[in-house]
Design brief:
Elements: H1 3-32, H2 64-67
Length: about 70
């Protein structure tokens, strides 16, 4: 087989995959058009800044060195 024919075949496959993904993306966009995307998350954000916040650290922090290999 000619090297150019292989390159053309690969290019055609890539274009077909791109078209299929574009069709799926537009379908997904149409499905999500009527939904409410402002749902509340159940995960509470953690504060960064360390000890200055005054909050106590979780109990599993004491076991941390043994969990990661105990350096």
């Amino acid at each position: 087989m000619n090297k150019n024919m292989i390159l053309i075949a690969v290019l055609v496959v890539l274009v077909v995959v791109a078209v299929v993904q574009a069709v799926q993306l537009f379908g997904l966009k149409g499905d999500l058009a009527g939904t409410d995307l402002n749902a509340k998350s159940s995960v509470q954000p953690t504060q960064s800044g360390g000890a200055s916040s005054g909050a106590s650290s979780p109990a599993n922090i004491a076991n941390l060195p043994s969990m990661v290999g105990g350096c």
